[in-house]
Amino acid sequence: MKLITVILLFSVLYCVQSKNWLTDSARFLKEAGQGARDMWRAYRDMREANFKNSDKYFHARGNYDAARRGPGGAWAAKVISDGRESLQFGSSGKDSDADQFANEWGRSGKDPNHFRPRGLDPKY
Fold this sequence. Notes:
This protein is mainly alpha-helical. The chain contains five helices and no strands. Helix content is 71%, strand content 0%. The protein is elongated, with a radius of gyration of 15 Å.
């Protein structure tokens, strides 16, 4: 419930400068929802693939797909990625930095296949 409230408030604040703030807010919320779905799909695929050294690829792919939705998708990708990294206990700072680098790579529109490991099933 808190996340929905934050998303709603952020979308209103983000779009209030526009003459069409209601339409812009609705678009932002739609993009954020689609971006969250893209992030979930990348996570689900990573778990399904269960392929060694593929996590950076799936981080980059999820962020890339979400950011392509628009500002709402990019925002959702950043919030989800940062939240996930802050909640991962027991992972080294080095691994977390590499994950964040892959997240930024994808969000900036760069090709996530840069991180794709050899031998990963083509369906991913």
